[in-house]
Amino acid sequence: MSRNHSSFLFTAVLLLFSQAIQAQSPVVPKLIWTVNKVDLGTVFEEQGTQYATYEFTHTQDSLFYIEDVWSDCGCTTVDFTKDTLQVGEKGQLKVAFDPVSAAGYFNRMIVVKGNLQDTQDTLFLEGIAIPYPEVPEKAYPVVKENVGFRLPKLNMGEVFTNEPKIKMLEFYNFGSSNLYADSLIFNSPEFIQVSQVQEFIRPQERGLLQVVYDGKLKNDLGFFEDYFAVAWDSTSVIPVSVVAEVFEYFPPFSKDELNVVPQLNLGNKEIDLKEISSKSIQNRVVSITNKGQQILEIRKIQGNCDCLQLEIAKTSINPGESIDLKITFDPSGRKGIDQRNIYLFSNDPVNPVQLFILKSRIE
């Protein structure tokens, strides 16, 4: 190989190596945004234009200014800092959103272009826009003390013990007085907290109550219906029903731990009693086995009827051990095809809730 050829190869390799090093170097953004996405939450049409503010810091040595800003929807308008910024100086954009233009979930994109090369950032604005109802009486049929609700109960859905569940309860002010947040009082169990989102709700306008359900403070597992009550200066006490399914939270674990953690195994997940008399009390036994390598804890056993009696000798089951679940079913007052559900809550992280079914045809 000639000397010139070797020199050429060396230079080429050095160039490629240099490019690879540069590619691995972290790219310092020219603008540091405090947030690049704002969630407006639930926005009612009658609340008018909503605003979101995005703040940034200029990090480069060169002078910076915003050349242009555009969005993917005419429903948003943007006002922004037009000054030229030195390194370390801050600027902001203020985005206005008109909820009349949307219905349901929305996600808007705002693109910011600066004077420096490669300065083009994308911001996001999201939320839920709810149009004003044509007939409020139909949209909010559950009326209590001139306050209307869409449904008779607030469904929290699944609530886990690791963090509180938050849900918004929408309501309509059919009264003639403003409903002020600072005049709201509520009475509830300690695991339910209630607050009004808007500062005040005018007559013929809608509002939101933020309901926080703490599964850990509930200190129980399964399906529940609870109640809280709210009132404003201009109303009497309004009862509200809340339904929820509370489950124990288990953190993720590796595949290697799959056979180590507690494992609840039911010898049978269904018993068919076939035809029975309504005067004949039924007794059955189901085997519960721990197939894991750690102690299995039975947190709770819950039936879907007072006609069931459920008994176990102990709630801690050693690895490889089996115990009997004794089931007593009283079919008095029942007739026809019948199904009873029995739920077992345990510290089995793979199947923390298991269902056992007891079927019959009652004559």
From TrEMBL:
<feature type="signal peptide">
    <location>
        <begin position="1"/>
        <end position="23"/>
    </location>
</feature>
<dbReference type="InterPro" id="IPR011467">
    <property type="entry name" value="DUF1573"/>
</dbReference>
<dbReference type="InterPro" id="IPR013783">
    <property type="entry name" value="Ig-like_fold"/>
</dbReference>
<protein>
    <submittedName>
        <fullName>DUF1573 domain-containing protein</fullName>
    </submittedName>
</protein>
<keyword id="KW-0732">Signal</keyword>
<dbReference type="Pfam" id="PF07610">
    <property type="entry name" value="DUF1573"/>
</dbReference>
